[in-house]
Specification:
Acetoacetate decarboxylase-like, eleven-stranded mixed β-sheet
Amino acid sequence: MPTISDFKGFAYPSPTGVSSVVGNMPWHFATEHLCIAYESNLEAVARYLPEPLKPSSNNPAQVIIDFGKWYCLWDEPDMPTINPERTSYNETVIWIGCSYEGQDARFCVQTWVDKDFSLVRGMIMGFNKKIGETYKTTYHPLNPGMPKIGPGAGLSGYVASHGERLMQGGMKIEKEISFSEIPEMMRLGQINLRYFPSMEPGGKPSVCELLQLEATDIRTGCAYTGSGHIELLPSHLEEHTNLEVVNVTGGYYFENGCTIVGGKVLHSWV
């Protein structure tokens, strides 16, 4: 009989590792972001930050809805030609700011994604992921009827899950900006909550920790800003409307990329 160390693959292991839904690190990403930033109720935002996390020192009531298209690779560089369906997905993320020992970061409240490998990989990294469908405006520069991404162009996005539309928003691009002018939250590192409950009734969680992701080879592309709007639609199975919209502060479109090489456990409750 094999031992567990005889099994191969990242998640989940098997005799050969071929069927792992998630490949080995490093994980390479590039993303198109349509972000709508708004101010919410500070107490509502703070409720999502377990101690020892604290609200961000800069604009602690800020919430960012991020409609994105992601391009990804793991340790199989030929994946785009072998299995191209494994190299992209669409996702919506709710971001809030946080602070750990005086260092600001961003924290994922909820994510909806349309591919299984992204869902499982996200849970490994501490993203609270669920299945959902994200659609955002995409323009192609060779389409004569489409505008180019830039001032005057309109962008929109929405996310739906299990037949319910949950959020919808958009922006009108007014000007190009430098990457340093996008919201600070989206330029900070990420601290996530990794949580796997125990199957023993009343048992402590098997995993309960704060993880800081470690990224290298960070790349930036174009960035634009303009007026934005966002609407949160109610659902009996979601709680995004707890982060009510008090004041929309802007819309942003930008592109970036990085490589995730691992993470560091900052705090464990187990």
